[in-house]
Amino acid sequence: MEPDVSIETSCMIRVAVLPIGEVPPSLMRDYLSMLHRHQTIPLSAISSFYTEHQKSPFSNQPWESGSLRFKFVLGGAPPSPWEDFQSNRKILAVIGICHCPSSPDLGFVLDCFNLACKSFSSSLVARCFAFCPSDSQLEDGKVIGDNLTLFPPADHETQEFHLQTMMQDIAASLLMEFEKWALKAESAGTILKTPLDSQSSLSSEEVIKAKKRRLGRAQKTIGDYCLLAGSPVDANAHYSTALELSRLTGDFFWLAGALEGSVCALLIDRMGQRDQVLEDEVRYRYSSVILHYRKSFIQEHAQRVSPITFELEATLKLARFLCRRELAKEVVELLTSAADGAKSLIDASDKLILYVEIARLYGTLGYQRKAAFFSRQVAQLYLQQENRLAAISAMQVLALTTKAYRVQSRASAPEKSVAKKETGLSHADNLKTLHQSVVSLFESQWSTLQMVVLREILLSAVRAGDPLTAWSAAARLLRSYYPLITPAGQNGLASALSNSAERLPSGTRCADPALPFIRLHSFPLHPSQMDIVKRNLARVDWWAGSAPSGPFIYTPFSKGETNNNSKQELIWTVGEPVQVLVELANPCGFDLRVDSIYLSVHSENFNAFPVTVNLPPNSSKVITLSGIPTSVGPVTIPGCTVHCFGVITEHLFKDVDNLLLGAMQGLVLSDPFRCCGSGKLKNVSVPNISVVPRLPLLVSRVVGGDGAIILHEGEIRDTCISLANAGTVPVEQAHISLSGKNQDSIISIAYETLKASLPLKPGAEVIIPVTLKAWQLGLMDADNAGKSASGSTVRHVKDGNSPTLLIHYSGPLTNPGDPQTTESVVPPGRRLVVPLQICVLQGLSFVKARLLSMEIPAHVGESLPKPVPVDNSSSEGAVGSHSKMDKLVKIDPFRGSWGLRFLELELSNPTDVVFDISVSVQLENSTKEDSFSIDQDAAECGYPKTRIDRDCSARVLIPLDHFKLPVLDESFFVKDNHADGANSGRSLSFSEKNTKAELNASIKNLISRIKVRWQSGRNSSGELNIKDAIQAALQTSVMDVLLPDPLTFGFRLLRNGLEPENHGSNEESSIHVLSSAPKSSVVAHDMTPMEVMVRNNTKDMIKMSLSITCRDVAGENCVEGAKATVLWAGVLSGITIEVPPLEEIKHSFSLYFLVPGEYTLAAAAVIDDPNDILRARARTNSPDEPIFCRGPPYHIRVVGNA
Predict the structure, then answer these.
(1) What ranges make up the beta strands (E) of 910-1046?
(2) How confident is the model at residue 891, as a pLDDT?
(3) 377: which of 79, 116, 620, 907 is 20 to 30 A away, CA to CA?
(4) Signal peptide location in the record (predicted)?
C-alpha cells in the first residue's frame, strides 16, 4: 500500500529528488520547498519546449486548460512490482540537487548523479540542478553536458523563475516521452504483468487467454499515460476499450484498475465542477472497483500476494473523496470496512499505512478519539520493530493522541491558553473556562486508557533515548493517576523520573509538573504598621476616603464604595519583603524532597527566594514563600517554580483549583490534599498586585513595655508612644487621629511634638506623650474585669473597647534615589495603627444618686457672706464651718430665697484598695454686666476628703450651684394641635428635644465646674464621671429645676421713705436689697414703709391680681380678722397690675407691728387670661383653670421698743 492516496493520484507524475554531494539540510529543505511550488505545470506554458516528432497519440490534448501534475519524492522509492498495473507508481523523472560551494568538482557531481539514476530504470528524464556555482564552475558547466543545469547566484525571485523554466522543460520532455511510449505500447513485444499472474508454464488455452488479456492491459496502460500527459478525454477512450476487453477475458483485476482510471479521468475533466450527480457517479463506479478487486482474489496466491491492498486503497480513495461532515456516516462505514480488511494484510508496513490513513480521515471528520485509537495502532506497530528510529516514530505518533485522550503535555498546548493563564480572564471568560475544565475533568474518567497511553509514551521515549519526553510522561502519569498506582508502581515512576533527569543537563525545564501538589493558601494580612493608603494630593487630608491596602474581604475603614473589579487589590512596596502562604501535598508512598520552590513571577520586578522542603509520604505542609519587589509595576503570580526530581517545572494554582473543583463534584479520582489529612480550604484567588515606590515605615512601641496598661475606672495616667522610621525614605507628613471605642479616654496627645520632628529621617525616633483616662465599665465589662482581677496576676480582657491611634504619614512625592519614581506615579501614604492596650478594672461603683434641696427664707437685714477661696493643697479641711456654709448657701435670683442644693452620691468600693474622695467646685461670680454669667477665673472651693475602705460604701455630697435658665421662653414649648380624640385631653406638650439639649448643656456646665477626684495609693489617681448621676437625679423634676418661675417676688424696706441708692438694673437692685440690707430689725409700734417687687420672667405682658399676706410664727394671718396684730397703710389685696416682659414693677405699702416677734411676708398673684406658656409651666389640664403664682416666704424680725 501507498500513503496519502486519492482518486487524483493516478494523474500524478512521480519525480525522485536526490541530494547530490554534500547539501546542508536547511538548504535542501529550501530547494525542496521551491520545487513544491511547481507541482502543477500548465500545458500552455510548455509549448515553447515541446516538439512534435510525429502525430501525437493524445489527439484531444487540452493545451489551453490542461496541465501536468508532479509528485516529488525525496530520495526516490524502490521499484514497485505493480508498476505495470499503475503507471503512476513509476519514477518517471529524476532531479538531482547540488550545492556547488559544498561540491566544487562538477564532474564528480555529474558522475554521482548518473550513477544514482541507474537505480530508477523507469525514469524517462534526468536533470541535475546545481545551485550557487562559482565563476570557474560556470565555465566548467558549459563543457560537461546537458543533464547539468547551473543556477547562478541571484535573488530568490530570479531563482524561482529559473527553476520554473527548468520544470517546464522537464514537463515538455516527459510529454514527448509519453507520446513515444503510447505509440509503441500496442506492439506485440510489450509485456504487462503483475505479481498475481501465474509463474508456472501455461497451457495452450491459457496462452490464448493471455494474448487476449494483453490487448486490454495495453489499452489500460495507454489510458494511464494519457492521464499523466494531462489528456483525460483520450484516457477515458482507452479505459473504455480496456473495460470491454477485460470483461471479455475475465481479467477482473485490470478491469478494476481501468475503472479507477476512468473515475480519475472524469474528475480531471470536470475539475472544479463537483455536484451531487458527479458524487453519485463516483460512488457507483468505485463500488464496482471494490467489487472487482474482491473478485480477483485467488486463494492459491493468498499466501504470497493478494489484491486486498488495492481493494483497501480503493476504499480509502472513496472515503477521502466523500470525507465531510454531511456524509460522515457513509465515510465511517467505509473506514470500518477498511479496518476490518487489515486482518488480511500480510505485510506489517501495509497495516501501518492503512492505520495511518484511517486515523487521518477520522481526524478530518473531527472524530478525534477514533483517530487517536488508530494512531495508537500505528504506534504499536512501530514499537514491534525494536529499534530506535521506530521508537521515535511511535513516540511522535503517540504525542498526537494525547489531546484526544486528555493527557496532553503543556508544551503542546496552544499559546493562547497559556497567555490567558498569565494575563487573567474576565468574569465571563472565567465561567466559560471553568465549564470547559469541568467537562475535561469529566472526560478524564476513562483513566485506565489514559494510563496505558502515558505508559506507552514513557516506554517509547525510553527506547528512543528522549529523557525529557520520558520525564514528562512519567510526571503526568504519577501526578494524575497516583490513586490507581500501587506504592511499588509509584516508586518505579519516581525512579524513572530520577533516571531521566540524570540524562538531562542541569537546569532543564519541563512544561509538565510532577509532585508535589501546590495550592495557594493565603496572602498574609498587612501588619497594622504597614497599611498603605492612596494619596489624594488635591486634599489636605490626603488619606480621606481611602481604605488601607491588603487582601481584606471587608475592612471597617472603607466607606462602602462599589468595586467593579471582581478581584481584590494588593499593594506591595519596592524593597520591602513580602510573603505568600502555599500548601504542598505529597499523596504518594515515598519521601519527596523538593530541592527548591519559589514564587513564579513572570514580570521582571520581583526577586523570589527559594526554599527546600521535605515531605514525608502522604503528608501536606503549609510553607511561606517570600520575595522582594524590585521596581514599580504590576506583579502576576500564576503559581510556583519547583525544582524536583532533577527538573524545573512550573506549578499553576489554577490547575490545582480545577482539580479540587472536580474532586468536590466527584469528577476526578481524589483530592490530594484531603488524602494527606489537610482540611478543607476556601478557594483563594490571586489578587491584582501592584508595586509602588519606596515608602517610609513607622514602627511604634509603648515606652515602658508593650503590656496592657492597667487602670481603674476614671484613673488618669500619662504614657509615651515611641515612633521610629524603619524605612529608607523620610517621613514628611504625619497626622494623628483617633478610632475605635472610648476615644474620649485619650485626654491629650502631644501633636506638636510629632510635627516638630518632621521630616523624620530613616532611623530617627520621636517620643509622643499621651494622657489617658480610664472609662466607665458596663455590667458585662465589670463582670469580666472582676474575673480578670481575681488572682495574683491581672489578665487583660480583649473586648475591643480600647481606643486606637491612627497615624497617617507619607514620604516625599519624588525619590531622587529611585529611578522608578516619576512625576506621573504618586507614591501612596501609610497608616500606622497603634492600639492602646488598656485594661480597665472596676473602681468605685455608683449605688444611688439623689438631688437634695432646701429653701431657707431670707431675713431682712442679713447679707450673704462672700466666698473665701480654699487652698486645695492643704491636706486637712482648714476652712471653718461658717465659711463652708457661706460657700454652700446661695441666693436663688429667681425665687428670692436662700437655696441649699446637694447631689448625694452613694458609692460602693468592691475592689481590694482604699479610695480617698475629694470634691472641688469652681464658684460662680456675678458681674455688673450680667449677673448670670460665669467668671472663667472663678475661685475653686475644696471640701474635706471622704475615705472609702474596700468592700464598704459611703455617701458623698456634691454641692450644686443654681442653674435655672434666665427666661421662660415659648421656644421650650410646642403646641399640640391634634384634632383626634386620643390627644384632645392634652393641649400642650413639652418639647422633649429642646429640653434634652438644654439639660445636657446645663449638665456640661456643672461638670465643668464640679470635680470629684479620687486617689488610691501614691501613683493611682483619677476622676469620677458624675454626668450619669446628675441625669438620674434631675430626671424626675427636670422642668421645675430647669425652668424659672413666671413671676419673681421680692420685698424690701424703705428707710425714711427713700429709694435705695443703687439705681441699676432690676436684677441688680433686687439682689442689692437682699444682699445689703441693714442688719437692724424692724421696731414694733412704728410705721414701716415697704415695697414689693414683681418681676416678669417671660417675653409676654402678664396681667394679674396681686395680694400680700403677713403671718406670725404660728402661721396665722395677722393682718385680717378680729385678732389682727399688724396694721397697714395702702392696698394689700386685689391689686390689679400689668408687668411688661422681662421687667419688674413695684408696689409700696406700710406695716405697723403691734407685737414683737417673727413674721413672714408672702406675695401671691392670680394671672388673668394666661397664655399657653404659662399653662404649660403650671401643668394645667383645663383651659378654665386659674393660674396661681406664690412667692417665697420673707422673714421679718420685729423687736420691742426700748
Answers:
(1) 915-922, 940-942, 946-948, 952-959, 973-975, 988-990, 1010-1016, 1020-1023
(2) 59
(3) 79
(4) none
